[in-house]
Amino acid sequence: MNLMSWLMITTSITLSTLLITMTTHWLMVWTCLEINTLSMTPIISKPHHPRATEAATKYYLTQTLASTALLFATTMNAINTSQWEINLTTEPTTTTIITLSLMMKMAAAPFHFWLPEVAQGSTNLTTLALLTWQKIAPLTIMLTIHNNMNQTLLLMSAILSVIIGGLGSLNQTQLRKLMAFSSIAHTGWIIATMFAAPKISTLMFMVYVSSTTPIFLSINRTMMTTIKDLGTAWTMSPHLLIIITLTTISLGGLPPLTGFMPKWLILNKMISMNMTIEATILALSSMLSLYVYLRLTYIMSMTLSPHTTSMTMKWRTPHKKHPMLMSLLTMMAALLLPLTPSM
């Protein structure tokens, strides 16, 4: 991909997402979502591999279906109310369809089916963009209309996402698919208190991004693709091994790391709203994902790979420079829990 094409695509993705955070008109939202989808599709298909083409096709079709449903709902709302303002969308049927379409864009259950396949067919950095940046636009729209969304629908989707994200990752050996199921589970946590505490949902998303980004940067730097490759990570770079271990445990939500903070706040908010059963189901369902994260850390930190194999091993990473972004995000993913009282 030449420089001009890359510049146009990245500019379109960035500006379309930023415009969605500022606009108040549904047609503008739909236009920016379409620009975002059309710009992301060539990035996914860039490796010119049949699997990448398949992933780009699945991504395009799913996002187009979600955008079509969003346009249908907003047009129906405009016909009935004669206005296109986002904040004035109060009709239950319209808000339900819009919520479903945004859940499909965020890959929340039961509309999660496309994310693991697209992640597996993409590169590491493209998958990172799908799991983090591409969720900003639908999350922003949901935060804008959170007062009018169906509480029961969001709760059912949140619980289902955490369960499916945990169950789906149990039998995975591919790291990108495993992180995709992890994203589905964390999407459930994000939308669990969307209707009652949007600030906590925003905090959950920010902590998820700060934990996921260093994991993917480390995986990309060491060129690991499967869980089996984690066993030889210490031979490549012990520092990267420590980074992946800390951020993975933080992603699982274990104290005293930062990942414990938003889940603690979410469960506390749900219990204060007399939603004890739902909070208990979420907490128990998260044990599935926690088991997967602990299995990864066990393979990385507590086992040694056999040295009698004749396969070619990547002994040392050629990159000796440690980027500032990875170090900063790792510290954020591990050390921000004491700031919880001030938040």
Brief account:
By secondary structure, the protein is mainly α. It contains 16 helices and no strands. The chain has two domains: 1-122, no CATH class; 150-342, no CATH class.
Characterization of the model:
Helices cover 72% and strands 0% of the residues. The protein folds into two domains: 1-122, no CATH class; 150-342, no CATH class. It has helices spanning 3-22, 26-44, 50-81, 92-106, 114-121, 124-131, 136-144, 151-170, 175-192, 198-222, 227-230, 233-236, 238-252, 260-272, 276-301, 324-335. The longest helix is centred in the first third of the chain and has 32 residues, at 50-81. It is globular and about 65 Å long. 44% of the residues are buried. The model has no long low-confidence stretch (mean pLDDT 89). It has 16 helices and no strands. The chain is mainly alpha-helical. Belongs to the complex I subunit 2 family. This is NADH-ubiquinone oxidoreductase chain 2. It is an enzyme of class 7 (translocase). It comes from Emydocephalus annulatus. Its EC number is 7.1.1.2.
